[in-house]
Amino acid sequence: MSDPPRHTVSVVTPSFNQGAFIGETIESVLGQEGDFSLDYVVVDGASTDDSVEVIRRYESLLDGGKWPIRCRGIRYRWVSEKDRGQADAIAKGFRMAEGEILAWLNSDDTYLPGAIARAVDLFDREPDAQAVFGMAHFTDEKGGGLGKYPTGPFGYRELATFNFVCQPSTFFRRSAFEAVGGLDTGLRYVMDYDLWIRMAARYRFAYLPELLSTYRLHTASKTMAAGDASANHEEALRIVMTHYGWAPANRVFAWCHHRLKSKLPPSLADAGVLLVPFSLLAALWKYLRLNRAVRREDLYLLRPRYVRKLFQRQIDIYRDY
Questions:
Q1: Residues 258 and 199 in one domain
Q2: Residue 275 pLDDT level (bands cut at 50, 70, 90)
Q3: Is there a domain that residue 2 lies in?
Q4: pLDDT by residue (tens digit) across 50-70?
Q5: CA torsion, ordered 14, 19, 20, 22, to nearest 10 deg
Q6: What is the residue range of 245's domain?
Q7: For burial by CB atoms within 10 Å, which of 41, 42, 167, 233 has the most?
Q8: End residue of a domain, out of 169, 188, 216
């Protein structure tokens, strides 16, 4: 009799009308190789495209013994029913999950080969770490490379100004996830960011400087949809203020910039020469109103080295769009 697997890793994929991408996502999970047992849950929100047919196809392949299993074993489950959005679907999947290591992978992202095995190995090498996060490639709609997500070694205060913990490349222990109360299902955009901040306030994050996933950017995603940008930045700013008691200058500017851009006609919104000065003025007023004074943390952010670093991160994310 072979030895039991070291770990059971549960991966949840929330999905809604992602038939064009979800097959690639599922294959990237089911194709993972290593000394672990895989518990994979796909939670579909009653899609009206061919998503359910794609999801069911892999169930048939596994049940028929036609899918090559490269880990200690795979349990594959799925549901398709109406939900209250992405965070609700992920939370539902985690309630179904059985593993002591958890992760979620959105239905337009993928794992790179060996991603789960490398994360499990780091958990074993650093047993005090409650979360492991690695690097990710941005890809376009067709899977073409667009550069790397700007990750880096963990810093709790730095997390307030930029989310350098890339969600599809992050794994965490169930015990820590449950101890901080799980996902806030009332959030629409930054449920991952909120979770990282709450977990990092109590537990250690370990950085793995290796590529673990691809993060797809396309016009239909919430990350890139122009109409969602202002609401996304507003929600992120609110979460940071809740947890840190501080409205970072760069986050205030980002929100004001996208809010102003969303209210202008396209001809003016694309004219950065006009947009940036007005955004700066609005951000200064909003910053002083929220913080009531200039915060020491923001004086630290003004150091040339940090400004260059923060600016480069934004360029890395948006340079191709």
A1: no
A2: confident
A3: no
A4: 999 999 999 999 999 999 999
A5: 40
A6: 226-318
A7: 42
A8: 216
**Number of structural domains found in the chain:** 2
Last residue of a domain, one of 189, 216, 243: 216
Q: Smallest Cα–Cα separation from 206: which of 316, 99, 123? A: 123
Q: Are residues 123 and 244 in the same domain?
A: no
- The answer to whether 21 and 141 have CB atoms below 8 angstroms apart is no
Token code pair at residue 33: 């190789």
For the stretch 142-151, pLDDT in tens is: 766 567 888 8
Residues 147 and 238 in one domain: no
Q: What is the reported pTM?
A: 0.90
Question: Closest Cα partner for 205 from 242, 167, 239?
Answer: 167
Q: Clarify whether residues 165 and 294 are in a common domain.
A: no
CA dihedral for 146, 149, 166, 219, sign (positive or negative):
negative
* Residues 222-230: contacts with CB under 8 Å, at least 24 apart: 222/188, 222/189, 224/321, 226/262, 227/262, 228/189, 229/258, 229/261, 229/262, 230/255, 230/258, 230/259, 230/261, 230/262
